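Take a look at the protein record below and tell me what you see:
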Amino acid sequence: MPEMNGYEVCREIQKDPALSQIPVIFLTALDDRPALLEGLSAGSNDFMTKPCDRFELRARLRGLLSQKRPYIP
Protein backbone atom coordinates (compact mmCIF):
# COMPACT_ATOMS: atom_id res chain seq x y z
CA MET A 1 0.00 0.00 0.00
CA PRO A 2 1.68 3.19 -1.13
CA GLU A 3 0.42 5.72 1.44
CA MET A 4 -0.10 3.71 4.64
CA ASN A 5 0.27 0.14 5.79
CA GLY A 6 -2.64 -1.82 7.23
CA TYR A 7 -1.66 -1.09 10.82
CA GLU A 8 -1.74 2.65 10.15
CA VAL A 9 -5.11 2.40 8.39
CA CYS A 10 -6.53 0.47 11.34
CA ARG A 11 -5.23 3.07 13.81
CA GLU A 12 -6.82 5.87 11.75
CA ILE A 13 -10.15 4.00 11.72
CA GLN A 14 -9.98 3.59 15.50
CA LYS A 15 -9.28 7.32 16.01
CA ASP A 16 -12.39 8.41 14.11
CA PRO A 17 -15.55 8.07 16.25
CA ALA A 18 -17.68 7.74 13.11
CA LEU A 19 -15.62 4.75 11.94
CA SER A 20 -14.38 3.14 15.15
CA GLN A 21 -17.30 0.71 15.39
CA ILE A 22 -16.44 -0.87 12.03
CA PRO A 23 -14.96 -4.34 12.63
CA VAL A 24 -11.52 -4.89 11.12
CA ILE A 25 -10.00 -8.24 10.16
CA PHE A 26 -6.39 -8.29 9.05
CA LEU A 27 -5.88 -10.68 6.14
CA THR A 28 -2.16 -10.88 5.49
CA ALA A 29 0.71 -13.06 4.35
CA LEU A 30 2.56 -12.22 7.58
CA ASP A 31 2.26 -15.15 9.93
CA ASP A 32 4.59 -14.33 12.80
CA ARG A 33 3.66 -13.43 16.36
CA PRO A 34 4.95 -9.82 16.17
CA ALA A 35 2.69 -9.15 13.14
CA LEU A 36 -0.31 -10.65 14.97
CA LEU A 37 0.35 -8.58 18.09
CA GLU A 38 0.89 -5.41 16.03
CA GLY A 39 -2.44 -5.96 14.26
CA LEU A 40 -4.32 -6.55 17.48
CA SER A 41 -2.69 -3.59 19.23
CA ALA A 42 -3.59 -1.40 16.22
CA GLY A 43 -7.23 -2.15 17.02
CA SER A 44 -8.16 -5.01 14.71
CA ASN A 45 -10.87 -7.44 15.81
CA ASP A 46 -9.29 -10.48 14.19
CA PHE A 47 -6.21 -11.57 12.26
CA MET A 48 -5.97 -14.22 9.54
CA THR A 49 -3.08 -15.33 7.37
CA LYS A 50 -3.11 -16.06 3.64
CA PRO A 51 -4.01 -18.32 2.12
CA CYS A 52 -7.17 -18.47 4.17
CA ASP A 53 -10.14 -20.75 4.03
CA ARG A 54 -13.12 -18.83 2.69
CA PHE A 55 -15.51 -20.70 4.98
CA GLU A 56 -13.45 -19.76 8.04
CA LEU A 57 -13.32 -16.13 6.88
CA ARG A 58 -17.09 -16.12 6.39
CA ALA A 59 -17.63 -17.61 9.87
CA ARG A 60 -15.38 -14.99 11.46
CA LEU A 61 -17.17 -12.20 9.60
CA ARG A 62 -20.56 -13.49 10.70
CA GLY A 63 -19.34 -13.64 14.30
CA LEU A 64 -18.10 -10.06 14.22
CA LEU A 65 -21.18 -8.72 12.48
CA SER A 66 -23.54 -10.48 14.89
CA GLN A 67 -22.03 -8.68 17.89
CA LYS A 68 -24.13 -5.79 19.05
CA ARG A 69 -22.23 -2.55 18.74
CA PRO A 70 -23.39 0.83 20.00
CA TYR A 71 -24.24 3.31 17.28
CA ILE A 72 -22.06 6.40 17.41
CA PRO A 73 -23.09 9.12 14.93
